[in-house]
Amino acid sequence: MIPIVMIPTVPPSADFPVSADASGHAEAPRAPRAVALVSGGLDSTLAVRMMQEQGVQVEGLHFYTGFCITEQQRRSGNPKAANRPNDGLRAGVELDIPVEIVDISREYLEIVTHPKHGYGANVNPCIDCRAMMLRKAGEIMRERGADFVITGEVLGQRPMSQNRKAMDVIEDEAGLSGRLLRPLSARNLPMTEAERGHLVDRDQLKGMSGRTRKPQIALAQELGVDAYAQPAGGCCFLTDENFARKFRDLFAHDPDLHLDHEQIMLLTVGRHFRLKGGMKVVVGRNAGENLMVQGLVERSVIPGAQLMVVEDRKGPTTVVAGGSNAALDAADARDNMADLTVAAALTARYSDAPEGSEVAVRLWNPACQPQADGRVFNITVVRDGFDDLRV
Ligand code: SF4
Prior knowledge:
Layout: E1 33-37, H1 42-53, E2 57-64, H2 69-75, H3 79-82, H4 87-95, E3 99-103, H5 105-113, H6 126-144, E4 148-150, H7 164-173, E5 180-181, H8 193-196, H9 214-223, H10 241-253, H11 261-267, E6 271-274, E7 280-283, H12 287-298, E8 306-310, E9 318-321, H13 330-349, E10 358-364, E11 375-380
Parallel strand pairs: 1-2, 1-4, 2-3, 4-5
Antiparallel strand pairs: 6-7, 7-9, 8-9, 8-10, 10-11
Helix pairs in contact: 1-9, 6-7
This protein binds iron/sulfur cluster.
């Protein structure tokens, strides 16, 4: 019978991890090392600071999912975000630790569209999301020879992913059982290997729980932490009710849609309308969004999409998608034309042309024709009557 040898992942009784040189001689004990999830919010910042107080060397990871509000604002030229640094990198500077940005945006699409553990209040797949991030963090921990992973999670703070059952599921699915330390709530949670092995002192960890932020704010004062971003969920489109409505509408009209980041980008900009014949209309709200939606259509990333603008007036660039250019039977052709006429009216409505004036709205498909060859709709500008079409 082959003997089974249990090899502890952390030395059970050493105060510090010990490594060996090539000849097998033990080298001087090194400081414990942890990999931290760093959003840049208060909780993850405090978790890192608490570990630093205990002499742990920390490396930060900041995950990019493709659904970060600030990042998208930056891309659409929003002046509020233009000069704002990445929250994770800024926190790294404040904490004096290296922070690496880990791009999981490609594999993330699968969990956003098919989350094993479902959605929270909107389209936020928080349990799958945390499990994915922590699985990745665990791989990086092993690659780099670190001892454990830390997060700023607080028991009971967020309904979906920070209740005890969800936290256990996440730890288990991430393959981090016993090696995931949550310093802010550790004393409410089972002892981890890092505590058992005396890499960290459990007595100095916290037992926070619940939604109040007061203990974190008090701890921040105690540890001299004063620069941090808003709590993590505030940075994620998936928790946003408006985004969730548009996301659900997209799949309700095209259940087989293969979602990509260009389509997500379109969900985050403009005013969205669903017309009676099924056409989707997105009206840019400012020059940055106009340029962005035009670029998306010109690169043909939205199948069959066309553009509309009001001629000789300042106004939006509008995307119309989901109509048909194919040969249609008479009824479908009527619906298609009715939708295009409403799309033109919406484009005129958000232009600077006065109510009641006549404008020409040009529709063209940049993939196959110059703007000047597009069809013209002559529209009388009306401001009211579109609310029930809003997504
Ligand atoms: S709020 Fe967004 S980023 Fe945070 S855990 Fe949920 S899905 Fe992930």
